[in-house]
Amino acid sequence: MDTTDSPEPLPKGWHKTFYTLWIGCFITGMGYSMTMPFISLFINELGTFNRFELNLYSGLAFAMTFISQAIVSPYWGNLADQKGRKLMCLRASGVMACTIFITGLSTSVWMIIGMRFLQGAFSGYINNATALMAGETPHRKSGWVMSAMMTAGVTGNLIGPLIGGALSSHFGYRIPFFITGGLMFLVFITTWTNTREHFTPIDKEAMKPMKDLLHKIPNVKIIFAMFITTMIVQASVMSIDPIVSLYVKEMKHGTGDIAFVAGVVAATPGLGNLLSASKVGHIMDEIGPERVLMIGLIIATLLFIPMTFTTSPWMLAFWRFLLGMTNAGLMPAAQTILTLDVPDEAFGRIFSYNQSFQAAGSVFGALLGSVISGVSTYSMVFALTGATLFINIWIVVIGRSRKKVHS
């Protein structure tokens, strides 16, 4: 990894902190994807449900985490600006270790939904780790570091479904939850012992209101455009996740190793993201994050057209692989724009607001996927998701045009 060519000195302990948080984000992403693609099949074992009920409960199980996350993220953001991002990483990994493990002990769908809600209220490891590294890294390396941190999560998302699918097929759907809980406990320990944050605490009384800090930002409109972009991009990712195993089951007519194939379909975006993230990060540092974001949104919108009409799980996996390569430039670009325009003293709050929008996107996407597939068809989910990305393109265009007016 190229981390030494910046003329600005890196803070003491930067590399150890970076690699520790990278591994922490990797395990967090892997643990999530080890369990989530199969949660609908887990729910199906806990009762007798018709098609609509199973799709709805699967969507709720996904959405509850992000509903609570959206509600409490601003509170955690204020606390992060006062106490630092390391404490937020410890809070997230510690509580997630407990809630994910307990989810594996669930005896009803409502116990799963309840644990997912509690997990969301204390989650946020990847976002806080990213914010911590953003604050520790010189601006000229921000694009690469944001992409590298995003790569950690997507690499985990790539491996997780394959491991989760194999474990679920041989040992049942509970085992991945138990393993994920244990791994998150290891993340808590390593983050506690190996990371260092050069952070100056801000007294609550000394914290400036966000409305005052917003006046320091050259173009506030682009910040809000990035919030909306984060929400829509996350929704496009999440719209298929709650029902991917059910969609694969339908396309395979209920025969074959459904859990394994669903794991492959769920993993392919992560593989595409992994292969292109580093290159996209360097390109972002060269041509700017806004251009990368616009190109990525256009390509992603076009890719949802063939996904709408595919009838093969392997073709779906192929198109999702290309989507993953494209997505490597979307979320990191939005986050990089935030790091370049936001004052350091507002980092925690801005990233927490961004996390709230990301959580809202997860809720919107999960419910869109589960409800639309329940009342219509699975392919309709892809059509509507592509339409939301098309709207997002115009939102970014408006934000960029206003920036040119102000510049």
TrEMBL record:
One of its GO terms (molecular function) is transmembrane transporter activity. InterPro entries: MFS, MFS_dom, MFS_trans_sf. It is found in: Cell membrane. It comes from the Bacteria. Residues 17-404 form the Major facilitator superfamily (MFS) profile domain. Pfam families: MFS_1. It is a multi-pass membrane protein. Keywords: Cell membrane, Membrane, Transmembrane, Transmembrane helix, Transport. One of its GO terms (cellular component) is plasma membrane. The chain crosses the membrane at residues 20-42, 54-72, 92-113, 143-167, 173-192, 213-238, 258-280, 292-311, 317-338, 378-398. PANTHER family: MULTIDRUG RESISTANCE PROTEIN MDTG. This is Transporter, major facilitator family protein. The lineage of its organism: Bacteria, Bacillati, Bacillota, Bacilli, Lactobacillales.
